[in-house]
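Lecture 7 notes: from sequence to structure.
We start with the chain below.
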Amino acid sequence: MHHFFVEPSAMTDGQVTITGQDVRHITRSLRLDSGDKISVADGAGKKYIVELTELTEQFVKGKVQQDFVADVEPATKVTLVQGLPKSKKMDLIAQKTTELGIEQIIPVETERSIVKLKPSKAKRRQKRWQKIAKEAAKQSGRAKIPEVKELTDFEEMLSLAVEYDLALIPWEEEEASLKEVIVGNNKVEQVMIVIGPEGGFSKQEVERAKEAGIKSVSLGSRILRTETAGLATLSMLLYQTGDLG
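Predicted structure tokens for the same chain:
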């Protein structure tokens, strides 16, 4: 069943009204018609089965057939802090972490970030990554769209660590394994994962992170690419907390 997101305000008296780009997708790409059913989420954790009743070029309307609290969102809310990578790697990271169940993504400039974005370009990239996250949330049937935050710097990111039950920074020189740390802290609700760019973190950055309360962990004997490290850490974390597998 095709899945879409709407604002809560689009739901009134058992009816839903879809506007914007999804109208063209429903009417022209999918060629849906009155009587067809779709899945709709309000972004706040609730999903609906909707029977389409009226389709125009400006809007699509439907009648709610069923509503339920979707059991598709991880109980552990994970924020990925991603060191700004080159090329379109951030597109992949936003897409795949959304599919896995990420709650929030914060891009960050670090000492070894090769890409440096001016504020105007950073804003355009943020909008692009948010759009990718939305499409991935639709594809994977999620009830919420992860929020992609504005680009921040390393020091500002460190100040956020106190907001989380557990904050982790994978580092190749660390001996304590991710599994050991997760097993010792498996009843957390809010987790932050901090991933470096292509060149990784400098030793000074890791020390600053530790001072801020972020635990450094090892992901194993092999060094992972930046676009792999976050996905691997998120997958292992959600598996250990019972959300995957």
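Points to note: The first strand starts at residue 3 and ends at 5. Residues 119-139 form the longest helix (21 residues).
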